[in-house]
Structure formats: structure tokens, C-alpha cells
Amino acid sequence: MKRAIWVSVAVIAAATVLLVFGVRSLLMDDQPPGEPVAVDKQVPQRPDCPAGLDLPCLGGDVAGEAKEITVVNVWAWWCDPCRAELPAVEEFARTHPEYTVVGVHADRNAGNGAALLEDLGVSLPSYQDDSGAFAAAQGLPPVVPVTVVLRGNEQVAVFAKEFTSAEELAEAVEGAV
Predict the structure, then answer these.
(1) Whether the predicted pLDDT of 44 surpasses 70
(2) What is the reported pTM?
(3) Count of CA atoms in the C-beta half-sphere (13 A) of 28
(4) C-alpha separations of 121 from 36, 83, 133 in Å
């Protein structure tokens, strides 16, 4: 009996997450329903991304090879906390060269994601994840911003919150590793 209850709760939770993502996509995307989304549609020219994530690249400056620790900031163009946090994430990347730091834009509209990076003057290497593949693979909560710390391919920490400074992010990452 208890197992049946847990299975029902899990099914309801999964359906709720899918419903929330579906409604958010319909409300937040400026693409007409049913029209295919082209990743390169209205995407400003940006520098190349490093290898390592199997997602289309929105661009960003990167130097050297991938490090042992990777910090991934999941964001979306329509997210006000993300807009405020991205410059702090870029500053963290600049002041902590011992880590690989990248962004993942979690929305179907790559053009708006790249435009936000340009508007903010942020050159953080960022990937386009219009299907939620990264979040699903990492088991992330359905919110943005979310920051994930990886050691190789192993998840070390997940922070579902906005970081207001590079120092605050550094403290969280250093506490996790």
C-alpha cells in the first residue's frame, strides 16, 4: 500500500514539473506555437565555447583546458535574478582560473539568450539548452538560476539560489569542494 502511494506521489510530481515547464515555455517564449526554433536565429556572433558539454554554443571567451572542477551556472534570458547574477559569475570565473566556469541558457530562444549576454557585456562561455537536457541529466530543480559544481562528471553541489557577488559564489564553491 505504501509503495503505491509513493509511486502516485512521484507520478504527480513528475506531471507537475512537466506542466510547469510547458506553461512557462508557452508564456515566456516569443516564438509562435508550433513554429520550429532555430538555434542560430538572431544569435549575435560570439566567441567559441570550450569543449565538454554536448550542447550548442552561444559563445564566450575561454582560455586553456578544462579543469578538475567545473562550475555551471544555469540561467534564462527572462530571469531577473539571472540577469543580476551573470556579471558576478563572470567575475568569479575571472578571479578563479583554477575552475572551468560556464553558463547554460535554459530556454528555447537562443537569440534572446545571446542578446542578454551581449547587453550585459558578459563573455562567459555559455551553452544553449532548449530541451532541458543538462538540467534533466543533473536532476536539477525546475528553477533558475541554479549553479552546479562538478568534479569531472560527478556532481559535488547544487545551489538553487542567486549569488549576488563573486565572493559569495567563491565561498559556496570552495565549501563544496
Answers:
(1) no
(2) 0.68
(3) 19
(4) 29, 11, 27
